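User: quick one, fold this
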Amino acid sequence: MPADLLPPERQPVIVAARRTPVCPVNGALRNLRAHELLAPVLRELVSEVALDPASVTDVVIGNAVGGGGNVARLALLEAGLPVSVPGITVDRQCGSGLDAIVLAGRLVAAGGSPVYLAGGVESTSTAPLRAHRTDDGGADFYRRAQFVPESFGDPDMGVAAETVAQEFGIGRERQDAFALASHHKALAAIQDGRFAREIVPLATDTGTVSTDGGPRRGLTPAIMGRFPAAFVTGGTVTAGNSCFDADAASAVVITSLERARQLGARDGLLVRGTATAGVEPGLLGIGAVPAARGLLAEAGVTADEVDLVEFNEAFASQTLACLDQLGIDPHRANLDGGALALGHAYGASGAVLVTRLLAQARRAGTSKAQALAMISMAGGMGTAALLEYRCL
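Assistant:
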């Protein structure tokens, strides 16, 4: 049953969403561990919604390359929530933050009018070194986990992005232009203060960080054209049209429509539906396509009827391929720039998409808007969430 047909006590709605600045790996947030990034966001959400901290049912957090140990529980205690509040950490790699929100929404739909804090976090800068134990007791260090069996090739994401570019005919010039536009949009959003209300400033050893650190001024088509192929000799995917690793945290308050009204929430994002799908691992960048396509069809919504679209820009090639396949004009997506400019903080990125959508909907000043969050992820998967902004 579509979520918007559920009774108020089971109808999931996101009533608040915040994030940290998104900063390049080893940049301004390099000394903050994952729970130290996330705790201020949780604390701010509890304050914004005037929640009794003890009333939080659970904290559901996505994380991809952290050190384990249930960062959700660690962060909520760091944030000052009482020991009675539990936490659970979700790993669906790049999709972890969005999938944490999806999971919380499904738990709300199960009934009982609970209140969840859900989202994602990644401190790529402080991620632990990882190694396989060798037969002689030594350590064989590796940079990334295995995503699929070797029989599937287990492609690196950059190589897969190049395969997507070839498979769907996304040329170098178009990739560069899209990436450049992402920087320009993000810089304009920063200049206009459009991110200010969603960002929770963070105190660091060198001062307070309150602005995204990734968008670059001075980029031109000529500069973009100078980047060499990064993953395949003679290819089209470069450092300029690919995202960079980043540190960030983002989370939402998600509860039932009934509970939201009791809390005095004036508006929010109704969770109309969610979907996750798998694809051929060699084309992992298009995982969002079957998820979003099936979700929109089930909801009876066409791509043209979606007012706001946020897609995680891991690579320009896969972003453009997905949008093309779904019939979404790229100019309509990521109105304030995306990961090509802001950076990709793995486990946090999916939650950042939702935070951006709520901020955009509120800024638009409309009483109702359809919104779509999408992310493709390692291993050949994708998650999509169809949301509807409404006055409550």
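User: anything notable?
Assistant: The chain has a mean pLDDT of 95.
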